[in-house]
Amino acid sequence: RIGVSVERRHDVMVDDPPEKRRRGHDGVAAAETLGRPLPALPDELWCKILTDVHQNDVFAFASSCRQLRRAQVSCGRTLKTKMKQYLHSQERVGRFSVLWFEWHSRCTRVKTKEDMKARTMLINASAFLGHLEVLRHWRGRSVARMGVWDTWTCANAAKGGKLEVLKWLRREVKCPWDSSTCEEAAGAGHLDLLKWAKAEGCEWATTRLCHKAARWGRLDVLKWARREGCPWTSRKVCSYAAEGGHLETLEWLGGTLE
């Protein structure tokens, strides 16, 4: 936004009509009276600012205007968004709107290994957020036949608690799944989704499921899993609960193990 504002201010000249000048800030009006455009920040200063910009925000920074693009190039910052970092948090990945995913999907041409990685990240993040229209877009493209759907697609839908997306993946594209689907659902506390996946024959009874539930304090999931006969390693499950700081879970485990 700052970059766009700077670029727009370059177009404000002294011979603009008075009513236009009055709508601006006092600083803009003062600059107009000098008969010249407002000065822009030098590229060197933008490069200094760019050092504090997170890697996943560099693309947005460089897309703001030509000057910020120049700054990005001269500083050597790459235009790479590490989507995997955002899949650990609904709040973080939620910064990307469905329109962003749709636009990025249309722009992505799957020709190289890097393109394929970008496609996989787009699909997995869309499954996590429940952006079914983006998944339909990829299903409709010819490149979707090139192994686009894998077990992590279902696992990310489960982690996001998107049951309808998971059902669509299984029904429409025959997306494969494995124990990671149930494990991610357990870690995120999506018990209803976990029960559905188990009923549909998804592999679920792993020690990792209980360990993830303990790590994130999903006591209701942990109790259900034990009633259903899911295995665990007593020492590890207690360690994970303690690591996550979940006292109630740890107390329940203590009583159960006794």
- Which descriptor suits the 3D outline? flat
CATH architecture of the largest domain: Alpha Horseshoe
Low-pLDDT windows of residues:
1-25
Strand % is: under 5%
Mean pLDDT: 81
* CATH top level class name of the largest domain: Mainly Alpha
C-alpha-based Rg, rounded: 25 Å
What's the helix and strand layout?
Elements lengths: L1 H8 L8 H6 L2 H8 L9 H8 L7 H5 L3 H10 L14 H4 L4 H10 L5 H17 L2 H9 L10 H9 L3 H10 L6 H10 L2 H9 L7 H9 L3 H9 L6 H11 L2 H11 L1
Helix pairs in contact: 4-6, 8-10, 9-11, 11-12, 11-13, 13-14, 13-15, 15-16, 15-17, 17-18
Commentary on this structure:
The protein is mainly α and 258 residues long. It folds into 3 domains: 2-33, no CATH class; 83-204, Serine Threonine Protein Phosphatase 5, Tetratricopeptide repeat (Alpha Horseshoe); 205-258, no CATH class. Helix content is 63%, strand content 0%. Helix 9 (113-129) packs parallel to helix 11 (151-159). It is flat, with a radius of gyration of 25 Å. The N and C termini lie far apart (60 Å). The relative contact order is 0.06. Mean pLDDT is 81; it is low at 1-25. Pfam families: F-box. This is F-box domain-containing protein.
